[in-house]
Prior knowledge:
Helix content: over 70%
Distance between the termini: 20 Å
Strand content: under 5%
Radius of gyration: 18 Å
Largest sheet: none
Structural class: mainly alpha
Number of strands: 0
Shape: globular
Amino acid sequence: xxxxYFQLVRFPGIFTAFSNILLGFFLSSxxxxxxxxxxxxxxxxxxLFLAGMTLNDYFDYNIDKNxxxxxxxxxxxISRKATLYLGIALFVAANIxxxxxxxxxxxxxxxxxxxxxxxxxxxxxxxxIGILNLSSIRFLNVILGSSMVLFNFEIIWMSIPIAIxxxxxxxxxxxxxxIYPRKAKITNLVLVLFTISYVMVLTYDSGxxxxxxxxxxxxxxxxxxxxxxxxxxxxxxxxxxxxxxSIPLLDAILVMAFSNIVFAIVTMSMIFPAYVALRKLxxx
Length: 284
């Protein structure tokens, strides 16, 4: 039963949400690291992610009965009523957690709650708007990480590549049930290239260490398309999973370029618990 709940909320993905928070947090903490604010920010982001995944399955119940009957809801392992209550409780917990940081954090958390609900209820069925919605949520997640300080426009520029990259992943994820989504593949590759180009321009005068990690990011996101020869829905799901796991890598590149290597390693370390959890649970 516990495994079913972990599966319902796509638990491995929570660590990619955490890395977004760490990006915003470390880039906004120039002199003093306010660790006491970090934990409620991580909690708020984590609860928002889990709530979104939970209610996504709640509203997809009829579709999953036909396409994914083995998932926790259509298989009967978890009831729809329990799922609804859990999703609401997680949203409440997220906004309460944000309130410990301050008004700015609560406002961002509330906006994210609205966007997540809009996506789960309706916008996921409108392809382009749904993808923009998901990108906006990830964008705001980084902003949430910086919300313990007064808002500054610099963090916006740091959040944009995350939004672009997530748009690329979302484009591919929308077709993960297809055998070989050629148009989605091309769009994904273009948006990943756009992400890499943006980061290169953004960080061109910020030392050289982060360029090594950026090289790893490039390999991780392009090599699977060349190595995995099988053209099937499982191939698409594998690549979506790999790209989702590389979100902490992208966050770490920016932390390394504009903060320091220790904080970058902390951010990048979110990959490891996500990978361990993936051995037992699916992410997409």
